[in-house]
Amino acid sequence: MIISKKYTALFLTGIISAMTAISVQAQTKQSITPQFISSKQAGNITLEAASKPFVPQNLGRSTKPNEGGSRGIPTGIDNRIPMLSRKYPWSAIGRIQGTTADAKSYHCTGSLIAENLVLTNAHCVIDPETGELSKQILFMPNVIDKRFQDVAEVEQVIYGTNFKDGSGISSNDWAIMKINQPLGRKYGYLGLKSIPTNTLTQNPKAFFFVGYSGDFPTEKYKNYFSAGKGWTASYEAGCSILKEDSGFLLHDCSTAGGSSGGAIIGVINGDPYIVALNNAEAKNLRTGQDITNFAVKISTIQESLSNK
């Protein structure tokens, strides 16, 4: 059996009290090189201010990710369905577009967790093989078939790991990006909730996952989307956290390159909370099938930021 571990996600920072004030602008005109700060350098900060969901007035809410236009897509094509809704909470999930140090382009998934903070993976902003930092990172909320209203640049990134231990995989593979526009005021943001692993595993099929996977929309959807793969997020209901192993949470959500940094979400008292952060999958290279998928614990992020 041949196993490869794939990563795809960006990492930007901005933890309220640790960040400087940002300027508000309708469009991004300049090119910002993000400032990178390790969680150890960030000081004793918490995510309390970014832990609760926020829904902007008049945006509207929807429990249906494909609300707003079925495009005539028949049911039963895939266990994943396209995220087509412009309402909350789908509005708070977006595509991260990065440029590497050697000018290569890549993408990941990120979620607004405050008005100017986006949660994703460290390996999306730091190359886990070379340690090189991304020279530019953009965040585009609620991209549907390459259509979006706003683009923000990342100013700062707080990261959990720089992969210098040489393992190429880390249970501290998270990043918080500070963007140069308060897009959370317009699109809303998700809450964060640290839940004990035994509680997560005792609630099978209770979670859902959204990510800009590089294999979605699949070929069966090709007649309904023009932008190609990775430009419309997929939604999968009925995901489970299977167990904890070596500091990772193992889950069964469908993932692929581009879905790194995607949020595993649970609805608690009617509100959406990120309960884990997808960061990697182990695949059988002969069949292409997932062997298992990895996620970062929310408690890992909180403890790293508080330097416990």
TrEMBL record:
One of its GO terms (biological process) is proteolysis. It holds the Pfam family Trypsin. One of its GO terms (molecular function) is serine-type endopeptidase activity. SUPFAM superfamilies: Trypsin-like serine proteases. Residues 89-265 form the Peptidase S1 domain. The keyword RNA-binding does not apply. Keywords: Signal. Residues 56-76 are annotated as: Disordered. InterPro entries: Glutamyl_endopeptidase, Peptidase_S1_PA, Peptidase_S1_PA_chymotrypsin, Peptidase_S1A, Trypsin_dom. Gene3D superfamilies: Trypsin-like serine proteases. Residues 1-26 form the signal peptide. This is Peptidase S1 domain-containing protein. It comes from Dulcicalothrix desertica PCC 7102.
